[in-house]
Amino acid sequence: MNRAGGERRMVDGSMIECVWRGRAQLGEGPLWCPARGEAGQLLFVDILKGMLHVHDAARGETRGWSLDEACCWLAPRDDGDGFIAALASRLVHLRLDEDGPYIVNAWTTPDEPAGNRFNDAAVDDRGRLWFGSMSETGEPGQGSLYCLDAEGLRCVDRGYAVANGPAVSPDGRTLYHSDTAAGVVYAFDLSAAGELSGKREHLHFSGTQGYPDGMTCDAEGGLWIAHWGGGRVSRFLPDGALDETLILPASRVTSCAFGGPELDQLFITTAAFEREQEALAGALFRVAPGVRGLASPAFVASRWAA
Q: pTM of this prediction?
């Protein structure tokens, strides 16, 4: 597909569109669900408010429900029975109907240090779930990276302050993961058996770039990263070169995910926390970046009772 490249700035209703003017305190975890609604729906959460939101792109409507405990992310199950979701302190089987979300059962949950919560997740093309944890007070070294698959739950890396982002390359051979507090995006070699090796520093953010937050890969291998404190989303090539920057009117950009019937729309979440002076902080944005994304794989839940 042809892409403009370079830098694009926000013009409401034009290149980058604000599709929900809510003020999520910590908007996160965007997930495109093609089977929901007339033409698909985007699910996202507000971690600090304990809210789950559903944006219906065809109708231009967004609904929200309060949860008993903050939800950090959701991933679809391969049996079609709702989602696996991370609440602040536990993994759960969650369903969502017209009346809102409800918990069916709890999953095996890793033993985390006091003051930690879960943060960001991705499912690879073999149905394995990768997710991180973080210290809510920013304590270095307390966060970890986990993998949950048919063989069980395992910790695969430690030593993060704010584990963030997981994203998997289109060929399934590279896992990207970041420590937001350190400003570093790491790359791992990912084997067919789900083993990680070759951890290396892929990108380092500094200065006006802010800090790397949520991320996703497109079908061409580009890595799109939300800049917390940097007011932008950037696309990086597989070799780490900066390819394109989207400038937004919200400084705390938290995550991004491809959606739409053709997976050619990039939805972007933001945070209003401590940004009262920014009129569109916490809003949900959408842009057609000129490249398609990847369908969100489903988590293989068949061997789990929850």
A: 0.93
Sequence length of the chain is 306
Residue 213 catalytic? yes
User: What Å distances lie between residue 39 and 188, 201, 258, CA to CA?
Assistant: 35, 39, 14
**Active-site annotation holder among 46, 149, 213, 218:** 213
Both tokens of residue 109? 């949950």
Kindly give the pairing relationship between strand 143-149 and strand 152-160: antiparallel
Both tokens of residue 140? Answer: 């270095």
CB atoms within 10 A of CB 49: 21
For residue 52, the tally of other CB atoms under 10 A from its CB is: 23
User: Exposed/middle/buried for 56, CB within 10 Å: 0-12, 13-18, 19+?
Assistant: middle
Distance between CA 254 and CA 269 in Å, rounded? 6
Average pLDDT over residues 205-210: 93
Q: Whose structure tokens read 């584990």?
A: 163
pLDDT for residue 102 is more than 70: yes
Q: What is the pLDDT of residue 10?
A: 42
